[in-house]
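Morning run. Coffee first, then this:
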Amino acid sequence: MNRGGRARLVAACAICAVAALAPNAHAGPVVDRIRAEGAIRCGGVSRPGLVGQRPGGREASGLYLDLCRAIGAALLGPEGRIAFHPYDFDAAFDLVRDGRDDLAFLDGSEILDERLAGRTLLGPAVAFVSTGVRVSVDSPVRTLADLAGRSVCFYQGSGAHRTLEAWMAARKLDFTRMPYTEYGEMDDAFAAAKCDAEAGETGDLAIASLSGKRPSRILPEPLASFPVFAATPASDPQWAAIVAWAIVTVQRAGLPAGPWTARAEASAPEAGDLGLSDDWAKRVLAAAGSYADIYDRNLGDRSPLRLPRGPNAPAEAGGLFVTPFRE
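And here it is:
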């Protein structure tokens, strides 16, 4: 082959390489379906403040629903609709397994127990759920270590039970175990002062405290905290990218710019890289506000639960959320 032929071949290969690296103009199957139906299908296990009915309310609400709405706005705009499916029985996870739900909020146990790891693309963490302990408001117990020698109610075999045992064993502390197999009976036992403390997920403890049967407070130190992730069907990487960057945009909104941080919009990828319109980040924030707004109205001071952000704060404020930014 002569020099001219080699040059043409190199040029042709370079064009092929650029074409291969360029963003795919054709949307993925999940993106196509969402656009065709004008709706996004989401799901997750019911947890207070994350998804469910507000105490005394009629309509479903929660952090998952707000995030679903915000992510849908990136693709569909304000006219987009959402459908939410609670995964409150084993068969409901078939919606994730079969790819019928576009976005699932799942923790590690749910992913592994339901064998969903090979069927989903794991996205960012959207919330950290904590297990903790509540005591009566007049209890002398101020820290978890103060539980030594005291009676603690817990649901047998639950995550709170396991983390309670692990926390106390790691510090060589013992306590009186009061296991239950019905959540209602456990709450009633605490209300009747049959145990000094009750272990559970902090959202459940906060809801139980609203009954007022035995005024209580949740100890500030958690037993453990674990992440809930945004998971999408493995069939569509483009949709997974849209979900991930929409969540990052919500989480970074409202953070002050500094030497190592930037405003949410300045840290967002180009719209063309995601196959979205130029105003996608603004539409995300207009749909539900910042993560601080979403947390506050569903779990924080503007909600009945009044749970502190704790691990659900950004790393800059002592929490566990870390998001990409421009250096």
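The first strand starts at residue 39 and ends at 44. Good start to the day.
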